[in-house]
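Hi everyone,

Forwarding the result from last night's run.
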Amino acid sequence: MKKLVVSLAAVLAIAVGTWLSVVLWQTYRPTDRSADIVSAGAELADRGAASSLATQSAKPEPRPAPKPALRPAPVFPDELVVLGELLVADPPEGFARGARQLGFEVIEVVELRQLEMAVYRVATPPGMEVSEARKKLAARFPGIAIDSHRAFETQGVKEYGKQTARPMAGWPQATATCGAGMRIGQIDSPVDTSHPALKGQRVEFKSFHKESRKPGPADHGTAVAAMLVGKPNWGGLLPGAELFAANMFEVNETGKVIGSGMGLLRAIDWMAQKKIQVVNMSVAGGDNKVVRKAFKLARKKGLVLVAAAGNWGSAKRPAYPAAYGDVIAVTALDKKRKIYKKANSGAYIDFAAPGVKIYAAVPRGGRVMSGTSFATPYITVLLAMSIEAGAPTSPTALREMLSGRVLDLGNPGRDDVFGHGVVKLRPKCQ
């Protein structure tokens, strides 16, 4: 009888304990934590992992929230430099020895004979930032032009459509001799002179890339060259003119295409040697003391310089060389005369020209291109024809001459978006 009572008591105790456990679980179960776990698990790609996670203990170890992916800060073209190098213009006697004492090393000396200027390419001390190296060398040699070795970019992008340069501006197709006797320069990427748009045209090409590197691709340079002097059926603006095309672009050791500042300097010197009337530069980068000095010397040699305003969409970051006072800066319009959405703006903008969705030659065919790169040739051509007709070659006089023949756009008078406006002149060819 006692055994029966003990057994009944044990069963009753188990039943009560079970009932109490259920009550306590219902009262204190971690509902919010469980929901969080299931919710987090549902976001996992692996459904099996989610199911396993939801059936774990009521007090699992908390999972840290995933960190958001960090986006790299945008790099504007005016921030691009050749790492580990500086450029120095016309250093004093004993410079190489003094620089070596500070840990620098002269790795190249380029004599720009036409500009009467020497440029030293200097390697910075290992591990030293370019900005710090520049300050250190400038402190040792005050008063001379020392700057980073700037890199530049072309100012065009691919688009879709099909209308060549002359129709885009409302100009009639040119004759094959239009522009005969004129000498135009172009500093850009390589040019495919065998392209149907350029084959047989008067184009002299020379590359100024580093010997240890390959030249950059020929797409952009070919497109600009064909706009300038391409055959009439390709919409060439001055098919009869002679073009001297210089390449400043190369492929560096990481596979990136860069426009070399040293290549730009050597190209400008070549333009002076060839006695070019107007030089088209559909490239952009940052300011540089050495390049600035070279451009001033180029102006003294009579070169008229025209450059793309830049495709950075910025009102606060001027693009160079366009922003130099001796350079005519050109921005881009679409066919409705609205400003190109990526065009820079600023006090340095001089004129506007078509530059959106222009069909131009590229190796193995053609492509529609947009950018201030493709607006620049229009102003280059108009200036070349004006100079051939006897116009003065100073930038101030040329700006004044063209500004009297514009359709004013935007705010009345010159503004920071359209400059003086779109030039209404049309080439007159015999």
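DSSP finds eleven helices and 20 strands in the chain.

Cheers,
N.
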